[in-house]
Amino acid sequence: MILFLKLALRNVFRYRKRTVITFVAISLGLGMMAIGLSMYKGVDRQAIGNIINSQTSHIKIFARDYFQKKDKYPLEINIEGADRIIKRLKEIKNIQAAEERILFRASIISGMDELPCIGIGLDPKNSEPVFNIPSSLKEGQFLSPDDRKILIGRGLAADLNLKVGDMCVIRMFSSTEEFAWNAYDLEIKGIVQTENPQVNIQTIFIPLQLAREGLSLEGKSTEIAIRLTDRNALSRAKKEIKDSIKEYLEGGLEVLSFEELASDFIQMTQFRRRIQAIFPFIMLLIATLGIINTMLMAVMERYKEIGMLSAMGMRKKEILGLFLLEGVYIGFMGSLTGCLLGGLGGLYLEKNGWNLGGLGSEISNVIASVYPIKDVFYADMTCGILFFTLIFGTFVSVLSSLYPAYRAVQINPVKALRHI
Questions:
Q1: How many domains is the chain partitioned into structurally?
Q2: Do 168 and 308 fall into the same domain?
Q3: What are the Cα distances from residue 349, in Å, to 30, 168, 277, 387?
Q4: Which of 150, 270, 359, 416 is the most buried (most CB within 10 A)?
Q5: Does one domain contain both 90 and 15?
Q6: Do residues 202 and 153 lie in contact, with contact meaning Cβ atoms separated by under 8 Å?
């Protein structure tokens, strides 16, 4: 067996130029595949994190039927006495914080310009643990409970050329069907820039009490957002919440996790994962063609040698094994180098990311409309990706060597020995 291993290794390096070309093609192909898989994984994790931190939190409680009509912001479907529910929720160990909020349709007017936006009435005392809005404040100050001021997303502020201290008119729509609204002259207290560009370009934040006043929802909220200490225990936490507020659920509330709240985006990523399977197939094609070409050339150039080995008593299965071993050597070394290249590239992108600014603002805006990520995409290189790359590359190499090895064992030793 050791003799076979040595013989196969020697044969691999007999034609160094051809072997090196095949080796480089496999290495680069598998390295790019590993980087691509790590980018997909990192972007998914980053996007879900941004959605949780700025939009859904881990779990939300709604009045029944609100979520099905959420795009219309139905204020008539609301929660009354949310503070009692929050007090009950604080008894659950895995809950870090909870906040009642009101989401509503609005528009912001500055001079002759008016833009539609989404308004969020938040509880300034409890917002920080649940969402990252306070920590995303780039200019000005955060809200106080009794403020009659607003925070505005940086993208929205830029569109209207607004800055901290400017006055604007906020039109708050309490009923979209009857087109009922209230308008307030409010000062901009701060400008927010989250990692989610969709929030930055379309959202304003006002104190919860002011939202209740403007929307005639005294003592009411449209949702309760809940932050967990351990996201991995999501299912258990959801069950504990349901058990804790069972009587409220029977009274017309429902509990939804971020997986349900962001189901459209999650379904899109699942569909994209099916499409991303094209990467391994492309690498499969590159590796297969390279190895088959290398091995077939070896068979042709060693035609007489193979005949001599057969004549000396080497069995067909031993010749078959010899060529398969050569394919394993090429594939394993190429895959190992591919893992090294992919690992280094993935770790670099995990630390520094890929800045979309170089693609131009228009392309960046299109990407931002699909992925809730601002400017920089980060990879997530794992040992699992590198292990898959190594096994995949080696397996493909063995598979690609089967046909050339089969051709080698079909050589007639008598004809081969006559071959010049």
A1: 2
A2: no
A3: 17, 41, 21, 19
A4: 150
A5: no
A6: yes
Nearest to 402 by CA among 296, 300, 305, 314: 296
User: Is 199 in the same domain as 175?
Assistant: yes
Q: Which domain holds residue 401?
A: 2-50+268-418
8 Å CB contact between 314 and 45:
no
> 18 with 129, same domain?
no
Per DSSP, the residues of 296-365 read HHHHHHTHHHHHHHHHTT--HHHHHHHHHHHHHHHHHHHHHHHHHHHHHHHHHHHHH-EEGGGG-HHHHH
Please indicate, yes or no, whether residues 374 and 283 belong to a single structural domain of this protein. Answer: yes
User: Last residue of some domain: 202, 221, 251?
Assistant: 251
Residues 212 and 273 in one domain: no
Tell me if 354 is assigned to some domain. yes
CA 194 to CA 154: how far, in whole Å?
Answer: 9
Domain identity same for 101 and 25: no
C-alpha closest to that of 258 among 228, 229, 299: 228
Quote the CA–CA distance of 96 and 94 in Å, as a whole number.
6
Whose CA is closest to 332, among 35, 4, 3, 5?
5
pLDDT digits (tens, 9 = 90+) for 217-243: 999 999 999 999 998 899 999 999 999
pLDDT tens-digit profile, the chain (420 residues): 565 566 556 666 666 777 777 778 788 888 888 998 898 889 888 989 999 998 999 999 999 999 999 888 999 999 998 999 999 998 898 899 999 999 999 999 998 899 999 999 999 988 778 998 888 999 999 999 999 999 999 999 999 999 999 999 999 998 656 678 899 999 999 999 998 988 999 999 999 999 999 999 999 999 999 999 998 899 999 999 999 999 989 889 999 999 999 888 877 777 776 666 676 667 667 666 766 776 666 666 665 666 666 666 667 677 677 777 777 788 888 889 999 999 999 999 999 998 876 666 666 666 766 778 877 889 999 999 999 989 888 888 777 777 776 766 666 665 655 654
Q: Kindly write down the DSSP assignment for every residue of 1-57, as one continuous string.
A: -HHHHHHHHHHHTTTHHHHHHHHHHHHHHHHHHHHHHHHHHHHHHHHHHHHIIIII-
Is residue 293 domain-resident? yes
Residue 55 belongs to some domain of the structure: no
Tokens of 261: 């709240």
Instruction: Please give the Cα distance from 258 to 281 (Å, whole number).
Output: 33
Say if residue 246 is in the same domain as residue 388: no
DSSP run (H or E) holding 256: strand 253-257
